[in-house]
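Input (structure):
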């Protein structure tokens, strides 16, 4: 016999996967505070229930929860084609009941898929006897089996989690479907370390996606990656990696995954591209992460007229000139080699 029992497609099972990846339940209910505050809601659409068997509505600007009516369908954990459904009880709990309208799907056109007293069954469809059943006219139905194939492409292809096969063990020229266990179906939320895959029952379920790349968090000193279990892993950056917009006066670096700042002492010199050499001033750290411009009489300008008897000097942060050292060689007004006197004249 063909193994067409318990073959499910994406169907309602996709809703189960969505619920599993969404954090459970149907949200949480908000409430409005009294005393003339702004309304929490203006329509029912802005309210969400805290449990599957609750109903949230907007009443006078506040989200109010009430008990769902008995028999309300619950999608959480619902399995398509198992001849059962989940629904709310009068006390707000969830019960599983027989649903003979939830017919199983085996993707075999040669069978009738039905539910009887909550039990799925796949019986030969007499109306399909000798009728075509696959992509090729060579395949026809025979006692509930699609026969006549020579390759899988001639067989019914099944659902998203199935693989068609021809000539299964013990059956010649017969079609079958097997589960494509582990097949990646979708990755609806890249970066959450989860993906939708096919399980051993042919259902689409969430599974870890270790090759997924989660977005970086607010901590510069760790690197996010996906673990083997589907959890986001935070790996510390290498110690001493610059972080937090590190500057000379506010040096910040990573230490054990945390951005740490150690202020330098006030007066620590800063080398800046905007600092002008020889302007008799310098920029230093103020000890609070900022900078401070101060006089620097050691930042003497370059002598624009070497050979005369004056030299550039700084006085209180202001450029000026002064006499050269007495005896410095110079050229006097007559063009002869001479020496500077104490007043800065070439004699």
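Output (sequence):
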């Amino acid at each position: 016999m063909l193994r067409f029992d318990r073959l499910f497609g994406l169907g309602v099972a996709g809703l189960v996967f969505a619920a599993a990846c969404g954090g459970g339940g149907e949200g949480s209910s908000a409430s409005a505070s009294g005393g003339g505050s702004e309304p929490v809601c203006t329509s029912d659409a802005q309210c969400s229930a805290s449990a599957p068997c609750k109903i949230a509505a907007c009443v006078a600007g506040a989200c109010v929860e009430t008990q769902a009516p008995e028999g309300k369908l619950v999608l959480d954990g619902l399995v398509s084609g198992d001849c059962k459904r989940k629904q709310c009880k009068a006390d707000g709990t969830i019960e599983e009941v027989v649903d003979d309208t939830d017919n199983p799907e085996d993707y075999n056109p040669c069978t009738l898929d039905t539910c009887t007293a909550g039990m799925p069954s796949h019986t030969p469809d007499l109306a399909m006897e000798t009728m075509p059943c696959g992509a090729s006219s060579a395949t026809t139905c025979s006692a509930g089996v699609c026969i006549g194939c020579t390759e899988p492409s001639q067989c019914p292809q099944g659902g998203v989690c199935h693989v068609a096969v021809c000539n299964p063990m013990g059956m010649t020229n017969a079609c079958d479907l097997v589960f494509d266990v582990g097949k990646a179906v979708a990755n609806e939320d890249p970066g959450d370390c989860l993906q939708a895959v096919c399980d051993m029952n042919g259902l689409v379920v969430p599974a870890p996606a270790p090759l997924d790349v989660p977005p970086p968090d607010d901590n510069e000193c760790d690197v996010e990656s996906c673990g083997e279990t589907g959890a986001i892993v935070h790996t510390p950056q290498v110690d001493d990696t610059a972080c937090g917009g590190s500057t000379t006066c506010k040096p910040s670096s990573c230490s054990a995954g945390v951005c740490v700042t150690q202020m330098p002492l006030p007066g620590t010199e800063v080398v800046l591209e905007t600092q002008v050499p020889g302007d008799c001033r310098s920029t230093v750290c103020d000890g609070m992460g900022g900078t401070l411009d101060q006089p620097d009489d050691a930042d003497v300008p370059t002598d624009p007229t070497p050979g005369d008897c004056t030299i550039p000097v700084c006085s209180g942060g202001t450029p000026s000139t002064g006499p050269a050292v007495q005896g410095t060689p110079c050229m006097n007004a007559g063009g002869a080699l001479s020496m500077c006197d104490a007043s800065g004249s070439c004699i």
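Notes: Residues 1-22+55-180 form one domain. DSSP finds one helix and 23 strands in the chain.
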